[in-house]
C-alpha cells in the first residue's frame, strides 16, 4: 500500500502584547454564530503526515482511549474505486477504500485496538443515511478524516443545498459532543471549518484578484464555501499545507474578504490539538516538528488601490511544538522550556523574492514566509524586513515589522522557534 499522495496545490494578536501578557486576557472572539458546547477534542493536521509521526498518531490514539481505541476512518475526500485506474493494484491504488485500509493498518500499528474504514465515498453516497453505518460510527471512540478534496466531504456527508447533517455526520457530531476525538489531515482538517471554508487557490492570484464563493476548476483561483464545512472549529478560519505551499497570502486575503479576524494556518506533519472546541474554554496546543501560524486581523485594514490590494496591520504568530493558545483571550502560552530569544546577529535579513513559494517558480523554496520572519527575529541589525512575490503585474511586497509587543522564543539560544505578534503589511508595487 503506498502512502496517499499530497493533494494538488488548490485545496487561515493585535496591539502591544508584551512577554508578560502571554498568560493574560483580552476580549473574547465571538466567531460566526454560536456553537454547542462540546467535551471532545480535535486533532487537525496540516497535511503531509508521516507514517513515523508517533507523536501525532499517538495523541489521536490516546484521546480515543489508548489500548482500547477504536478509530473510524473516513476517506470520502479521495476518489472512489470506480475512478481509480489502479484500484486493483494495492501498491499503486489511491482511492477511498484503498486509503481507508492504509490508515486502518497504520492506526493499529500505532496502538489502536481496532480501526475500520467507514464505507462512505462518491460510490456510496447513500451510506450517509444508513442505519448500519450509523451503528458502526456509534461503536467507535475516535475518527480520522483523510486528505484529498474537502468538497467531496460536503457532497457525501451533508444534505445538498440544505447543508444539514446526514445521519452519519450527526452521529459523529454526537460522539464528539460526548468525548470522542475527531482528527483529520489536509482536506480532513479543512472540513472542520465553519463558514467560508477555503476550496482552493494560490496566494499570488488571491492577493491580485481576491476571493469568490464557489469551487473552481482553475486551481489558482481563491474560492470559499460560504456555508462552510462541518463547523467543528469556528473560532477562526482553517488552512493547511501553509508553509509548504506558501498559503499565508491566500489565508490573509480570504479572511479579510469574508470578515474573519483569525486564521489557524497549519503546517505539514504537525497537529493543532483543540480541547473543548466551540466552548468558552477552547484551548489549542501545537504538536509536531513544524508549527501553526495564527493570523490576527482584528486591527488590520484592507484597501483596493489603483495599483492593487493592500493590507495593513495584520499580525503573525508562529507557534511550535508544545505551545498553547487560548482562543477566547487570543493569548499564546509559550512552552516553559523555551526561552526569550535575545538577538545577537548583525547580518541583514536575506532578500526573498518568492515569499509565497510560487508554484510558477521552479527553484522556489518552501516555508519562505516563516524563514524571513525567523531571520528578522534573530537579528539586531534591523527592525523590519521586506520580501516580494515571484510574480509581477503587480509584484506584492510583504513587510515584516517588530512592532511593540513582538517577542520571539528559542530552545537553542539561536533559532526563533516561536514568534508572537509580528506585524505584517502587504502592498503592491
Automatic annotation (TrEMBL):
<keyword id="KW-0645">Protease</keyword>
<keyword id="KW-0378">Hydrolase</keyword>
<keyword id="KW-0732">Signal</keyword>
<dbReference type="Pfam" id="PF03575">
    <property type="entry name" value="Peptidase_S51"/>
</dbReference>
<protein>
    <recommendedName>
        <fullName>Cyanophycinase</fullName>
    </recommendedName>
</protein>
<dbReference type="InterPro" id="IPR006311">
    <property type="entry name" value="TAT_signal"/>
</dbReference>
<comment type="similarity">
    <text>Belongs to the peptidase S51 family.</text>
</comment>
<keyword id="KW-0720">Serine protease</keyword>
<feature type="signal peptide">
    <location>
        <begin position="1"/>
        <end position="30"/>
    </location>
</feature>
<dbReference type="InterPro" id="IPR029062">
    <property type="entry name" value="Class_I_gatase-like"/>
</dbReference>
<dbReference type="InterPro" id="IPR005320">
    <property type="entry name" value="Peptidase_S51"/>
</dbReference>
Amino acid at each position: 500500500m503506498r502512502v496517499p499522495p499530497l493533494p494538488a496545490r488548490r485545496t487561515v494578536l493585535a496591539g502591544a502584547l508584551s512577554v508578560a501578557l502571554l498568560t493574560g486576557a483580552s476580549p473574547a472572539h465571538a466567531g460566526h454564530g454560536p456553537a454547542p458546547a462540546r467535551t471532545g477534542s480535535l486533532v487537525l493536521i496540516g497535511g503531509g503526515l508521516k507514517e513515523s509521526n508517533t507523536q501525532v498518531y499517538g495523541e489521536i490514539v490516546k484521546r480515543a482511549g489508548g489500548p482500547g481505541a477504536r478509530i473510524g476512518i473516513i476517506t470520502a475526500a479521495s476518489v472512489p474505486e470506480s475512478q481509480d485506474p489502479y484500484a486493483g493494484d494495492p501498491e499503486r491504488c489511491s482511492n477511498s477504500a484503498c486509503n481507508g485500509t492504509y490508515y486502518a493498518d497504520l492506526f493499529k500499528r500505532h496502538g489502536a485496538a481496532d480501526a475500520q474504514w467507514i464505507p462512505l465515498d462518491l460510490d456510496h453516497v447513500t451510506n450517509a443515511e444508513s442505519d448500519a453505518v450509523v451503528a458502526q460510527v456509534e461503536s467507535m471512540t475516535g475518527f480520522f478524516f483523510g486528505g484529498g478534496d474537502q468538497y467531496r466531504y460536503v457532497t457525501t456527508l451533508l444534505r445538498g443545498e440544505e447543508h444539514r447533517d446526514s445521519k452519519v455526520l450527526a452521529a459523529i457530531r454526537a460522539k464528539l459532543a460526548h468525548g470522542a476525538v475527531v482528527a483529520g489531515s489536509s482536506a480532513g482538517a479543512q472540513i472542520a471549518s465553519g463558514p467560508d471554508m477555503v476550496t482552493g487557490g494560490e496566494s499570488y492570484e488571491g492577493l491580485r484578484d481576491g476571493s469568490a464563493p464557489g469551487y473552481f476548476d482553475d486551481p489558482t483561483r481563491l474560492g470559499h464555501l460560504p456555508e462552510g464545512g462541518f463547523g467543528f472549529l469556528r473560532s477562526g478560519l482553517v488552512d493547511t499545507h501553509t508553509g509548504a505551499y506558501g498559503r499565508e497570502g491566500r489565508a490573509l486575503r480570504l479572511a479579510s474578504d469574508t470578515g474573519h479576524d483569525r486564521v489557524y494556518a497549519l503546517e505539514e506533519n504537525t497537529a493543532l490539538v483543540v480541547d473543548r472546541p466551540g466552548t468558552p474554554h477552547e484551548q489549542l496546543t501545537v504538536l509536531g516538528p513544524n508549527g501553526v501560524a495564527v493570523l490576527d486581523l482584528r486591527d488590520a485594514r484592507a484597501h483596493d488601490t489603483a495599483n492593487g490590494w493592500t493590507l495593513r496591520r495584520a499580525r503573525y504568530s508562529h507557534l511550535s511544538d508544545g505551545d498553547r493558545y487560548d482562543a477566547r483571550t487570543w493569548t499564546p502560552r509559550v512552552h516553559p522550556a523555551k526561552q526569550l530569544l535575545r538577538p545577537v546577529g548583525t547580518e541583514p535579513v536575506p532578500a526573498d523574492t518568492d515569499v509565497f513559494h510560487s508554484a510558477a517558480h521552479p527553484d522556489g523554496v518552501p516555508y519562505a514566509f516563516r524563514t524571513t520572519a525567523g531571520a528578522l527575529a534573530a537579528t539586531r541589525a534591523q527592525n523590519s524586513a521586506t520580501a516580494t512575490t515571484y510574480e509581477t503585474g503587480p509584484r506584492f511586497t510583504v513587510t515584516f515589522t517588530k512592532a511593540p509587543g513582538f517577542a520571539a522564543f528559542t530552545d537553542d539560544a539561536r533559532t526563533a522557534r516561536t514568534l508572537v505578534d509580528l506585524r505584517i503589511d502587504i502592498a503592491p508595487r
